[in-house]
Structure prediction request, 247 residues.
Amino acid sequence: MTDTSTPSPADLAPVEVRIQSDDFDVAAEIEQLRRANPNIGAVVTFTGLCRDEGGRLAALELEHYPGMAEAEITRIARRACERWPLDGLTAIHRHGRIEPGGNIVLVVAASRHRRAAFEAAEFLMDYLKTRAPFWKKEHLKDGTSGNWVDARDSDTRDADRWKA
Amino acid sequence: MQLRYFAWVRERIGQDSETVDLPGSITTVADLLDWLAARDEGYASAFADREIIRVALDQEHAEHDAPLAGVREAAFFPPMTGG
Prediction:
């Protein structure tokens, strides 16, 4: 998509970024955006969950870089707001021990129309995967704690798609 | 300068942060990595595969050729796996 003008910061959508060990409530986050702006026509949410890896995994432990994690996700979210006409963008990333089925990350993108909301949510997730300073360590059901999850080349390719 | 380490870089070095006085000859991230890797086996192991090490200077991503002048905090970590 082509930008015809650069919106001034005052015109950009409100961005909310939270890094927390507590769980989050998807419905409450949608409600907060909806209440703030009655002209929102589309809300897209993405929730990333902890898999059990075929029954092998007891939990993931998420380490993060306090300060930079908030700053980097905020930088990515602001870029999304400059690129799409959004009316709100929320990103919540958890840290600490998370068991299979548990929430890891939430993105909520709100806009007048659906396409901007879909694309902005995907853009934010793709860049968050490769640039937000978080690392996952696996704790296995057999009691061993072991491996740090390796970064995937496909995640880098996913982020690179947005370079236009 | 304050140094911070995360994930397996932190584990191999055996601490999550330290403060160092850098010799004047250390002017870039790459110089600092060489200097640290020469310290002991833990640092050498953390920085053995130099190319995959990611760097942040004052909490912003940086390349290995970035200058260190004026930097207060440098962080070293593996490729990120959040989300």
User: Anything to note?
Assistant: The longest strand of chain A covers residues 86-94. Chain A has one domain: 14-140. The interface with chain B takes residues 48, 62-65, 67-68, 71-72, 93, 104-105, 125, 128-137, 148-151, 155 of chain A (CB under 8 Å). The beta strands of chain A are 15-20, 42-49, 57-64, 86-94, 96-98, 103-111, 134-140, 145-148.
